[in-house]
């Protein structure tokens, strides 16, 4: 396993591999090694493409923000 995969804890399916390309209008991918594959396929040649990961949004505080949160003390 690559160090990147362990650090990010991502499943090694073809959806996140740098060797695969999307097919517009389809649920399949084109793999450089195996050709047409499903997004959920798993392969030993998996190489993580970090640009394919979707970032998670950080949640705002429950109480919201106040004007004191944005002031500085000098």
Widest sheet: strand ordering: 1-2-3
Give the biggest beta sheet. 3 strands, antiparallel
Task: Determine Rg (CA atoms, Å).
Answer: 19 Å
**Percent range for helical residues?**
under 10%
Series of secondary-structure elements, N-terminal to C-terminal: HEEE
Number of beta strands: 3
The general outline is elongated
How would you classify the helix and strand content by structural class?
Answer: mainly beta
Explain the overall architecture.
The chain has about 70 residues and is mainly beta. It has a domain at about 1-50. Helices cover about 10% and strands about 15% of the residues. It is built from 1 helix and 3 strands. It has one helix spanning about 5-10, and strands spanning about 20, 30, 35-40. Strands 1-2-3 form a 3-stranded antiparallel β-sheet, with no helix packed on it. The protein is elongated and about 60 Å long. The N and C termini lie far apart (about 50 Å). The mean pLDDT is about 80.
Task: List the defining traits of the structure above.
74 residues; mainly beta; 3-stranded antiparallel beta sheet; 8% helix; 15% strand; elongated
What's the short story on this structure?
This protein has 74 residues and is mainly β. It has one helix spanning 3-8; strands spanning 20-22, 28-31, 35-38.
SSE map:
Layout: H1 3-8, E1 20-22, E2 28-31, E3 35-38
Antiparallel strand pairs: 1-2, 2-3
């Amino acid at each position: 396993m690559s160090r990147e995969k362990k650090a990010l804890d991502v499943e090694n399916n073809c959806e996140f591999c740098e060797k695969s390309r999307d097919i517009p209008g389809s649920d399949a991918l084109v793999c450089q090694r195996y050709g047409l594959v499903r997004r959920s396929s798993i392969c030993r040649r998996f190489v993580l493409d970090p640009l394919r990961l979707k970032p998670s949004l950080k949640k705002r505080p429950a109480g919201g923000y106040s004007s004191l949160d944005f002031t500085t003390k000098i």
